[in-house]
Amino acid sequence: MNRRQFAGSMAAMVAAGKMQGQSAPAELKTLSSGTFKPQPAKTPGAPRVSHSYLLGMLKAGNIRLEMHETIQQPGAEHEAVGTHPHNEIWCVQRGTATLYINGTEHTMEAGDVGLVCAGDQHWIGNKGPGELAYFVVTVGPPE
User: Is the pTM of this model over 0.90?
Assistant: First the structure.
């Protein structure tokens, strides 16, 4: 079996929910046009706090959309290095960030936008002396 055949069989197993310890993706609601308020913080008082705005599937049924805001205090640990099957758009509101993408660190300031494509290794951290606040919009397949 070559690497392409292996990757294809792994993808098929994950899609079928047959990988040990894997479960089928949670059923997400269908998003409708409208406005969205921030939800309560996931970890209030922590050095890195996130507020979800929306999470669901677009009407086409094959595109997952999520948006959240994160606020990081100076010295807060950056998020874990990760990869995802979705794309992420980072919009810095205030502060200075380091956006790490595939081994390269990029500096972002208020008003800057960063893009992390599906499969890229990444993390974001507070690079400045003050609070960092940014929005993340994720677009991709159901997970």
Answer: no
